[in-house]
Amino acid sequence: MKNLYLINATIILENSAVRQGFIHIKEKKIMLIDDMENYPHISATDKVFDCTGKQYVIPGMIDIHVHGAAGFDFMDGKHEAFDGIGLALAKEGVTSFLATTMTNPIQQINDTLKSLAEYRVKSNEPGAPEMIGIHLEGPFINKEQKGAQPENSIISPNTALFKQWQRLSGNAIKIITYSPELDDGFELLTGLKLLKVIPSMGHTNASYDEAISAINHGVTHATHLFNGMKSFHHRDPGVVGAAILHDDVYVEIIPDGIHFHPDLLKLIVKMKTLEKVIVITDGMRAKGMPDGEYDLGGQRVSVRDGKCSLISHDSLAGSILTMNNARLNLEKWLDLSIHEQILITSTNQAKRLDILSHKGSISVGKDADIVVIGQKGEVDLTICRGAIAYERSGAFI
Questions:
Q1: What are the backbone angles phi and psi of residue 160, rounded to the nearest 5°?
Q2: Read out DSSP for 173-234?
Q3: Residue 279 burial class via C-beta count within 10 angstroms: exposed 0-12, middle 13-18, buried 19 and up
Q4: What is the pTM assigned to this prediction?
Q5: What are phi and psi of 17, to 5 degrees?
Q6: Is residue 396 included in any domain, yes or no?
């Protein structure tokens, strides 16, 4: 494999930065990071990107909750759909993701999990964002907080069924969004802990006391905070209050200015600190597509002016937010430094999934998952495991 170099770059490391530096990439990995004064003699066959005039070189972003993009959805269950989503995610600076399912008939979930397992074995190659696992959203959820999840496919928590799905997925399910108040004796939760699957409270109508009980029994994650859960109330703080107050719980946020008021982010960060905040897109197939009508889990969704909502009852139905736009929104709304932006778009995700040893930051020996950010904050180049996944036209001349 050819050597690849990024030169004359401002390289953002986990706790520091290299100004006027270079990165040497070979065989999927970061081989060397150093100052330009130590730039070695290179071969004519080596690939070089001159980052003069670019803002930053940052670690690739990780989206742990995304359903689709570019007209495709993971529930389509087809490899060409998975390829299409991956290409779209590379354009927004995503280098790793969890393919996210939704509440559908059992057989359709079976088929999708099998197809995802086959794809991860046969097609999950460098040069495209890596499908690092699966986020199972539903069907063990509360009908009262179904949101855009189809009600006719919602079922009670079922440990045996989940174990079957984990086998079909090739043990790829990393997170499950479910309603813990429906889990009798926390039987499923106990099984999830044994299988090392992250249990997340979402599409749940749990009271504050029920949520605290679930946390005490091992729930450590909250899906798209404020959405798909009982509203915060001064007499019953609900899941929102429990998730914000409990230090061990990570919270997902969709910073599009639609799913909740931007100023609420200030409250979340004050209470949780950035260390427990994870940016997601909850992207659906309309992401990157024109306004119009789209399918989500067999339901019609209207997309207008950045808002996705079910035509049947105007519930929010995912988003068309990109990870890079999420990063830019947080920079604007919270005045976050580039290091803080990286923490909640990449590093925290890698910590949460226990893959920080090889992803989530730029460091020698880690996967070469790297994004070059242009002067206006745009994604100019995305490298996935050492191979180019996306290059913006005209970004490098």
A1: -60, -40
A2: EEEEEE-GGGSGGGHHHHHHHHHTPEEEE-SB---HHHHHHHHHTT--EESSTTSSBPPPBT
A3: buried
A4: 0.97
A5: -145, 150
A6: no
Q: Which CATH number covers residue 204?
A: 3.20.20.140
CA 101 to chain CA mean position, Å: 13
Torsion angle in degrees (nearest 10) through CA of 67, 68, 73, 78: -110
pLDDT digits (tens, 9 = 90+) for 162-200: 999 999 999 999 999 999 999 999 999 999 999 999 999
Same domain, 240 and 129: yes
Q: How far apart are the first and last CA of the chain?
A: 23
Phi, psi of 112, rounded to the nearest 5 degrees = -65, -45
Residue 125 lies in a domain: yes
Backbone angles phi, psi at 190, to 5 degrees: -60, -45
Domains in the chain, number: 2
Q: What pLDDT, in 10s, does the model give residues 81-123?
A: 999 999 999 999 999 999 999 999 999 999 999 999 999 999 8
Contact 96, 358 (CB under 8 A): no
Q: How many residues does the chain have?
A: 397
Q: Taking the CA atoms of 66, 72, 76 and 82 in sequence, report the sign of the dihedral they define.
A: negative
* DSSP states of 16-69: -EEEEEEEEEETTEEEEEEEGGGPPP--TTSEEEE-TT--EEEEPEEEEEE-EE
Same domain for 8 and 73, yes or no, is no
Calpha distance 319→92 (Å, rounded):
14
Phi, psi of 282 (to 5 degrees): 55, 35
Domain limits for position 219: 60-352
Question: Looking at 73, 76, 183, 282, which residue is catalytic?
Answer: 282
The yes-or-no answer on residue 73 being catalytic is no
